[in-house]
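Side project, low priority. Logging it here so it doesn't get lost.
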Amino acid sequence: MAGKHFSSSSAAAKSQRSLLFLFGLSIVFISLIFYLFASSSSSSFPTLHATAFPAASNPNADYSFVSSLEKFLINHKSKSPSIRDAVDERNVKRLDDLIAEEEEKRLYGGESSFYSPIRVYVYDMPSKFTYDLLWLFHNTYRETSNLTSNGSPVHRLIEQHSIDYWLWADLIAPESERLLKNVVRVHKQEEADLFYIPFFTTISFFLLEKQQCKALYREALKWVTDQPAWNRSEGRDHILPVHHPWSFKSVRKFMKKAIWLLPDMDSTGNWYKPGHVYLEKDLILPYVPNVHLCDSKCLSDSKRTTLLFFRGRLKRNAGGKIRAKLVAELNGSKDVVIEEGTTGKGGKNAAQIGMRKSIFCLNPAGDTPSSARLFDAIVSGCIPVIVSDELELPFEGILDYRKIAVFVSSSDAMQPGWLVSYLRNISSSQIRLKQTSLAKYSRHFLYSHPAQPLGPEDLVWRMMAGKLVNIKLHSRRSQRVVKESRSICSCECRRPNSTSPVPFS
């Protein structure tokens, strides 16, 4: 009896535990279904949870041009430049011999020596090319009435093209304060891989009188081209920031072999002359965004109820003429917002609000193939829709823009109803993937001081490292080839501002 009673009790207990287990499992299953349903139907357009967005900014870094510049000018006093050697063949030859010795040491110094960081010599130019121009901006940037012919605030344009400031400020900072490890500043020219020219071409163009600006350009040209290092390589290993397409225009043909830092290639030839710029030599850098970063909390809170957003000047020149046609085609479409506006303070706020409410942001060509709007969209978490057939993108050797943007040909975009229909047919899962990538990529477009690892300053030098062997190749080849002994052809023979194959003449 006792044994039978024990068996019955045990069976009852097992049965009760089985029922409890099945009940618990059913609760978990129902909760999972409810979660999936709620997450898929929470809004008209897909959004991401805050945990999907890593922090893109460092709280100890300054991302504001004006704020960073004020601190910089307090901590850095201009000084008289060091006396430089007069340019003659002996000085050029002496520098060339010293550089050859340094390169041989690196070549035979072991693997760690050969793969050392890029070494950059920063020219100590007179203050009229550097500090004086920074002070000129600092003392006048509050004059909001200073506008260009199309109504854009001059000082805002300077800020969005201020790549020359961010790179220089990082290079000349004390090494103990710098975070970038793939580039170092050297103080002896023979140790340098590259030479940086710290001339603020955009500030001088916008804030000086026309004739005063041209005179300063000629002085800067003479100062740089008098350097032995320039004459040794004909400027091939020199970095020249000319990020605004109007800047340095009157004399840059004399520096066409230098590495130019550009916003794009401008295949129209209106701003950069054919044959002066090409990707093998030059580097595309992003504009400084006009809007603030939409961080993880902002991205999580954003209710993106607009399908497609555009705000900007509706009428442009040259390659930007498609903009007016495209806007006319899109006007009146459901869930599409098209606004006329400029980059002033009110325009900045309106653009920021509009982008943070939108899934897609339209990026047609402007006067040149690129515009700051692309980078505003990226840091706003708004998927760029790029309608610019000739656009070259920053750091494309490192970043895959297909993960964060939609590329559309001009001919497709102009077909009635085509673009809106195309965007509506992009699946929710594809949109979420691009939004996740946008959150991850935004750090690559935020200039700061100190410059951050994987920020745009860092990617500049990673891209330069890929160019360095080719730069040395052309520099050495130009030195050893007997002049006029034969027709010399290199990538410099390319006439159009293009990366497509062009037959050599």
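Brief comment: The chain has 18 helices and eleven strands.
Revisit when time allows.
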